[in-house]
Write a structure and sequence with these properties.
about 350 residues; (apollo) hypothetical protein; alpha+beta; 13 strands; elongated
Length: about 350
């Protein structure tokens, strides 16, 4: 009767009886045979070699400080596995499945796919990633940083408003664009070759213009007919590749110096003011009637302006000699030069650009 209650048959009872000793069942033997399918070490090594062959983005082109390595985000793990399978088929070698490839990629390598994002300050990122104790220690500095950030936005807004009134003012904003890697193409061969890194630093001079109402736009009480609006005027791009310069303070400072020399000849070459570093200055201004006096603030919370006289005692402008940052040509890495030459020789790069790549 108990068989009907437990919904079992004689076979179940017989199996339990045969596999029990002193009232205890023997250990389950399923999966403990020696006939498991194993992936050969040669296949695993081929997968590792394929992953190692993917060019990594150099650490000094990444804003975040991390031990993780990054590869171009133009492909997924599935795409990489398909490329790996195609490579094995061309070479007549056995290949592993996607599960094995993904397991090795995620388990044995500390890799991530790089996608350019909006720049964030190192202080903000470091504070967010800190443990509670470190956050308490750095909270004051972080709060001051947030105050300065909000005040800087307010000052930028004031500068825009002032530009509407006085068109002779010079207001400019600048930004270092995301690194551009070349050459690029729609075939997989480009993905597995190291590329040349290019930097683009832009300076946009804001201009005040008469607002033009769009055609057929109905007039409302909130419309600003004839009011002055602030737009981005001429944007100057300072472009260089890694064979000409790096991505640091020397390059950024050189770009800004060139812009200042063009717009304000009286400010060329200033590096220190009354023992105050130029990097500490948050705001500075020069009046037309006092062109030799530079007013500046080292914090947006300052209520009074500090002054620096740009003229020496002999009435000459204080312009320290600037030194050339690089005295010799910067050489790119050998493996990168080899990859670029391979693309050129195989006509993946048009021969029109041969002189440029040969002279890197």
């Amino acid at each position: 009767m108990f068989k009907n209650t437990l919904d079992i048959n004689d076979r179940t009872i017989k199996t339990v009886t045969e596999k029990s000793t002193d009232g205890f069942l023997k250990e389950d033997q399923r999966g403990k045979h020696n006939k498991h399918y194993t992936v050969g070490e040669a296949i695993k090594n081929d997968i590792r070699d394929h992953i190692k062959g993917i060019p990594k983005i150099e650490s000094h082109y990444l804003r975040a400080q991390t031990t993780r390595e990054f590869i171009d985000g133009g492909k997924t793990i599935s795409d990489l596995h398909r490329d790996y399978v195609d490579q094995c088929k061309r070479n007549g070698r056995n290949y592993g499945n996607y599960v094995m490839y993904s397991r090795i990629f995620n388990g044995e390598f500390n890799l991530g796919f790089f996608a350019p994002k909006k720049d964030r300050g190192e202080l903000c990122v470091a504070y967010e990633n800190s443990n509670p104790e470190d956050k308490l220690q750095h909270k004051k500095k972080y709060d001051e940083h947030l105050v300065e950030k909000n005040l800087s936005r307010e000052e930028k807004k004031k500068d825009k408003e002032a530009l509407k009134i006085n068109k002779n003012l010079i207001v400019a904003v600048y930004d270092l664009q995301a690194v551009l890697q070349v050459p690029r193409g729609n075939v997989s061969v480009f993905y597995y070759k190291s590329k040349l890194n290019n930097m683009n630093f832009t300076v946009s001079k804001l201009t005040a213009e008469n607002a033009e109402r769009k055609r057929n736009q109905p007039t409302t009480s909130n419309s600003n007919n004839g009011d002055l609006i602030v737009n981005h005027g001429i944007t100057e791009c300072y472009f260089w590749h890694e064979g000409e310069g790096n991505r640091g303070a020397d390059e950024i400072g050189s770009c800004l110096l060139k812009f200042i020399e063009k717009e304000l000849h009286s400010l060329t070459g200033i590096t220190t003011l009354n023992k105050i570093r130029i990097s500490d200055i948050k705001m500075m201004t020069i009046a037309k009637n006092r062109p030799n006096i530079l007013k500046y603030k080292t914090s947006y919370t300052d209520t009074e302006w500090s002054e620096a006289n740009l003229l020496s005692r002999n009435k000459k402008l204080i312009i320290p000699d600037t030194k050339q940052a690089y005295t010799t040509k910067i050489k790119i890495k050998e493996n990168k030069k080899t990859d670029l030459m391979t693309l050129l020789q195989n006509n993946h790069i048009p021969s029109f650009y041969a002189d440029f790549y040969n002279n890197l």
